[in-house]
TrEMBL record:
SUPFAM superfamilies: Periplasmic binding protein-like II, Winged helix' DNA-binding domain. It comes from the Bacteria. Keywords: DNA-binding, Transcription, Transcription regulation. Belongs to the LysR transcriptional regulatory family. The keyword DNA-binding applies. GO terms for molecular function: DNA binding; DNA-binding transcription factor activity. This is LysR family transcriptional regulator (Chromosome initiation inhibitor). The keyword Transcription regulation applies. Residues 4-60 form the HTH lysR-type domain.
């Protein structure tokens, strides 16, 4: 079996993670020419192209395999760092940029419970990178080997991975008091939802449509959308009276309780089941991440 140069592997990872050769060179503190040379040498050793020179750059199938291998090597080094810290607590931890441990989490989890779950690990100097995507798509980052774990709605474990249920994030439809009084004085109904706009993250976010369809027993709905790609931004947009927001109940409780926002469909909430997927490897870092996320989720999310 071939032995691959760790510097070349990290070069490949830097190109993919930074989205280009110039930024990869800056991160690795080498010239852009050196980045190209390392990639060419690795491609020659593998006998295959590893990067598709598109916009954005993306790894080929062979590149994805080597990228996953590189992430696994990082995980092993992170495990070693934690073991050494236990033996010599005063020793400095790893701070290298290329030692980052990457996971993918949906924005609503970041805005509600996930940051608290990860706080202690970050305090232990775990070099964490959180990649944000919709909960229906975070598993693609894991599938491609770009992260070692993800919070997702996918129930079935991916090949080579393990899955742990986290619980359900409940969503409610809210609007500012003034917006509700002007446009929805009787709340949201099957007859008036087309008359208002709903907030969404982007064009692949179907949360609002799913809320309306399930709440009113409709097969398909078409909504008017305003796109705000941030959980906190959506809460501010709702407060400012831009549109209706289908937001985590965890964030809506306070504003609804103080009367600044109105629950437009009292008694109805959309539960979205979340799961933690990660590589099925023996790793103290993975075990620590899994324990931290599942423990906090058990206290925060709705459990079956």
């Amino acid at each position: 079996m071939s032995t691959y140069d760790p510097a070349a592997l990290e070069c490949l990872a830097a190109i993919v993670e930074e989205g280009g050769f110039e930024r990869a060179a800056q991160r690795l503190n080498v010239t852009q020419s050196a980045v190209s040379q390392r990639l060419r040498a690795l491609e020659a050793q593998v006998g295959s192209v590893l990067i598709v020179r598109s916009r954005p750059l993306r790894p080929t199938s062979a590149g994805q395999l080597l990228l996953k291998h590189t992430k696994q090597m990082r995980l092993l080094r992170a495990d070693l760092e934690r073991d050494l810290q236990e033996l010599a607590p005063s020793a400095p931890g790893a701070t290298r940029e290329d030692e980052r441990i990457s996971i993918a989490i949906n924005a609503d989890s970041i805005a509600t419970w996930a940051m608290g779950a990860l706080h202690e690990l970050v305090g232990q100097r775990l070099p964490l990178e959180i990649i944000v995507d919709d909960q229906d798509f975070t598993q693609e980052w894991l599938r491609s080997g770009q992260v070692l774990g993800c919070v997702t709605t996918l129930k079935q474990a991916l090949r080579g991975c393990k899955m742990v249920p986290l619980g359900a994030m409940r969503y409610v439809a809210v609007a500012s008091r003034d917006f509700a009084a002007r446009h929805l004085p009787h709340g949201l109904t099957p007859h008036n939802f087309r008359e208002v706009s709903f907030l969404s993250f982007n064009r692949k976010d179907d949360m609002a449509a799913e809320f309306v369809a399930r709440g009113f027993g409709l097969k398909r709905v078409a909504l008017n959308h305003l796109f705000v790609p941030s959980t906190e931004g959506q809460m501010r947009a709702v407060a400012a009276g831009w549109a209706v927001g289908v937001v985590p109940e965890l964030l809506a409780r306070g504003p609804v309780a103080d009367g600044s926002m109105i629950d437009l469909a009292p008694g109805h909430a959309l539960p979205i089941q979340l799961y933690w997927h990660c590589w099925n490897l023996e790793s103290v870092v993975l075990d620590a991440l899994t324990a931290a996320l599942t423990s906090t989720a058990a206290k925060t999310l709705t459990q079956p």
